[in-house]
Amino acid sequence: MLFEKWRNLSENHVNEEAEVKFWEEFLRAETSIYNEILNEKTQIIAGKVCDLAKAYNTIPEYFMGFLDGINESIEMAQELEKIEEDTQINIKIDWEKLYFNMVNVEAHWLYGLKGWEDILPEDYRKRVIKEFNKTKIVVKEERIGRNDPCPCGSGKKYKKCCGK
């Protein structure tokens, strides 16, 4: 039910302005949660969802959104659909996987948080970003001209071979 509430909140907006307002508010709450977790180096998050939401100064639905976002970056994924406000959770964050996933979804406001400096070495963080950026480089395929040698290796001109 809580997961369903989160999905409804995140997907159903009366207009674009309401959607923008929702995401600004949620991302501010999410950033605040991550900021505290990173600064305190809290690798294990345990407790009732409603208590954790209160501890992180947010509402249970937003905390559920946080859990939805971090679920692929913890040692044992949670069955989000079964989590309710009074559900006791105990998750352990895999720092490297979390950082990698943040970079992969281009969440620069999260992977750029200062708290990462004391958790993962700078060279590791730079390498992850560099590897991700390589995946975005588009290599333009060279076009074969009619009079170029055929790429099949026959020795004939393209127009007389595979270009027919």
From TrEMBL:
Coiled coil: none annotated. Pfam families: SEC-C. InterPro entries: SEC_C_motif. This is SEC-C domain-containing protein.
